[in-house]
Design brief:
15 helices, about 40% helix, globular
Length: about 350
């Protein structure tokens, strides 16, 4: 078999350049509609900076991670964090939960866990001969699923209905989960001992998969200065309410997405699905492409990025900045790609740099 040439990969810092559609906004005073839109965004995003400052008191660096957690809050999307132990994945999620006035539960996933440990079960009462429902910890606003890939598939399946439909079925009854409801999960790389690959159906329900990397030297020194003590850690305070988050979500849903950017998002997703366009030189490398959930997640994520940047419209840079986190876990590579050391991230980067932007 003739060996395919590996796709040429761009430099990491060279991608995602601004494009022609990212024009300067007109003067605020020139258009009352624009002025009103910007004032609405400013008012509904007033909690963003206090939340960032409060989390920064505990979490050193990791700006990319913290920004993606904000995107998840604004879009009602679940997040999967992957990284080796000790990179503050769990701490970041616990800190986020502490900064929000919502119910929070932490689930430590283990190989002997049962589905009932998550969703709850029916308990028999011998006094009246009836069964009563005992709700599990899933009935909370924020769920920290710690080391989620240490539990077998039957436990993972217990989360499918909750993550997609925001409801849980116990016995013959279906119960709605509280609003907002987010699953914030951590996992170690599969090379770690005692881990299981997550089912594709569950992975696709995560809006984003964020890779947590080692801190740089400056951040590492800051961690040493702040954490190398036996004193109790800083306890963050709640600075955001559920009502503020829901209000911001309504504003995010109204942000303008031009038809050209909508077409660009669709083109990005279609480019991951076989058969691949010959010009991309990726045929034989992609086994499974991104689902329609990716299209929805890219649009919502781009709107959230525009919101965080104080804009009332989406630019291609918003789509590109979120694309890797939205697509990396939804694109499965073939054995041929693995043999040539080509990952889903390499493929997504090539697509982002090859497709023309509006």
């Amino acid at each position: 078999m003739t060996q395919k040439a590996a796709p040429s990969l761009p430099e990491h810092n060279a991608r995602y350049q601004p494009t022609s559609i990212a024009r300067e906004m007109p003067p605020v005073a020139a258009d009352p509609v624009i002025r009103t839109a910007r004032e609405t965004i400013g008012a509904s995003s007033a909690w963003i900076k206090p939340l960032q400052q409060e989390m920064s008191r505990v979490i050193v660096g990791q700006k990319h991670l913290l920004d993606r957690l904000l995107v998840a809050l604004l879009t009602n999307g679940h997040v999967l964090l992957e990284g080796v132990p000790g990179l503050a994945k769990t701490l970041a999620l616990k800190t986020l939960a502490s900064c929000i006035a919502l119910d929070f539960k932490r689930l430590q996933f283990t190989p002997d866990m049962l589905p009932a440990d998550i969703v709850g079960t029916m308990i028999y009462n011998p006094q009246d001969g009836a069964f009563r429902t005992k709700h599990g910890p899933i009935f909370s606003n924020l769920i920290l699923a710690d080391e989620i890939n240490r539990a077998p598939a039957k436990v993972q399946s217990a989360l499918l209905e909750a993550m997609q439909e925001r409801q849980v079925t116990i016995g013959d009854e279906t119960y709605k989960l509280p609003t907002p409801f987010l699953v914030l999960a951590t996992q170690n790389p599969l090379e770690q001992e005692g881990t299981y690959p997550l089912p594709e159906a569950q992975v696709d329900r995560f809006m984003m998969k964020v890779i947590v990397t080692y801190p740089n030297r400056i951040d590492e020194r800051a961690i040493l200065d702040a954490m190398a003590t036996t004193e109790a850690m800083i306890v963050p305070r709640a600075v955001v309410s559920a009502a503020q988050i829901v209000e911001a979500r309504h504003v995010v849903n109204t942000l303008y997405v031009d038809d050209k950017i909508r077409d660009y998002i669709v083109d990005l997703v279609l480019a991951t699905r076989p058969p691949i366009a010959p010009s991309l030189n990726l045929n034989g490398y992609i086994q499974i492409g991104a689902s329609p959930r990716a299209t929805i997640a890219l649009t919502l994520g781009a709107r959230a990025m525009a919101f965080l940047n104080g804009r009332h419209f989406v630019v291609p840079q918003d789509v590109k900045s979120i694309a890797l986190d939205v697509l990396r876990h939804r694109v499965s590579v073939t054995y041929e790609a693995e043999a040539e050391n080509i990952s889903s991230e390499n493929i997504i980067e090539k697509i982002l740099n090859a497709l023309p932007v509006p």
